[in-house]
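Progress report, Aim 2. The chain analyzed during this reporting quarter is listed below.
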Amino acid sequence: MNLKENTKRHWLEFALKQLVQKGPDSLKIMPLCEARGVTKGSFYHHFKNRQDFIEQLMEHWFQTLTMAFIEQANTEDGPLQRLEKLDQVIADNNIEAEMHIRAWALKEPGISDYLARVDHQRQDYLKQCYLELGVDSELAQDIAMISYAQFLGLLQIYPTPSLKTMLRLSGLVSSTFFPEEDKTNLDK
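Predicted structure tokens for the chain:
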């Protein structure tokens, strides 16, 4: 393995893949090192212990699949364009780890704290977009929760709906609260 492949980021990306492919037990130190073909010293070069590893893994997940997505959505000017961009960013990225992390939280109590942070940030972003569309605060929070619950729910369906279907359904939530004739006025 060359040095580029032994960065902390590579460890974290590898761990997310392992979680998806083999489950949370593969994220213990020895199985993880064995799967990477490295010694425990390589692990400890980047992480103090398993708890530090888990914390950094969850922070990495938060930054790459929440904050980076929001940052990309924020390249658009209007709130509806940001919501559409967010849908497209989600569709363009592998979010498979999402449900595996949520399942892991059922067995590893500390993970739920990270989920709460992620869920709050995501819903808060949606709420802010809806507020900018002129919706009152309580309704904006409700729409944000409905939109987010719809997103998570679609990930639970087997087989998982196509991205095209997920994006179409996501758009239905907005159109329910913002009829087409209102949308053109809201973004001006």
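DSSP finds ten helices and no strands in the chain. Residues 181-188 have pLDDT under 50 and may be disordered. These observations will guide the mutagenesis work planned for the next reporting period.
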